[in-house]
């Protein structure tokens, strides 16, 4: 088995992966990711006990138990670049022998669930509601650096997306990946379902205008109007497609769930976004702990 060199996988002096500062025994097989480091404690306060805490850069992690269910909650920070770090290092913790720097002969799949916030792109999805992403559609280019190929239906959907939104290749080469059927079946009642678009930024890439003009000023309208068979775009944010794409390539089960804090069609913003996020955390933990 080929050895992974020190420059390619950085392991610190305590035997932990560099950015997350976690060792294999400090990670549970079921992981909740949150963007905001402060939200880690908002999740772990519901644990019955916490066995490990770690804080390195924007990556904070707590591992503990709800009943007999062992869970890790970890902050990713914002954006697909951070997702590249988090997904690869989570995978390394379970599927690479850090002592020998070789890939293990038997691979371990993780359950990775993003609990975050998002902006709705449909008028009938109100603020303070919840969206489960059936697909992550990336206009961030992350997965284009890896060997990934969509199936025939996904290729047709992407072609229709490019045609309808008039996104040119100078901006993005979009990609798409579906959620885990293993996980999404648990999140049906009282959740909206649809395609989530992942953007590489918060302002221009999401159609916001402050002082700079946009190369595609009709982006919001075109995303809202997009349809392909039964599919429509429900929301956008900055992490889902990277989680879905890398998760699929690495063999993990991934799901993204968003609290809608803004509706970009009706121009409304949540009057109490923290309450909406807290309720989503509770709903998600209740479902996970019942597995």
Automatic annotation (TrEMBL):
Its EC number is 2.4.2.3. GO terms for cellular component: cytosol. It comes from the Bacteria. Residues 31-282 form the Nucleoside phosphorylase domain. One of its GO terms (biological process) is purine nucleoside catabolic process. It catalyses: uridine + phosphate = alpha-D-ribose 1-phosphate + uracil. One of its GO terms (molecular function) is purine-nucleoside phosphorylase activity. This is Uridine phosphorylase. It comes from Niastella caeni. The lineage of its organism: Bacteria, Pseudomonadati, Bacteroidota, Chitinophagia, Chitinophagales.
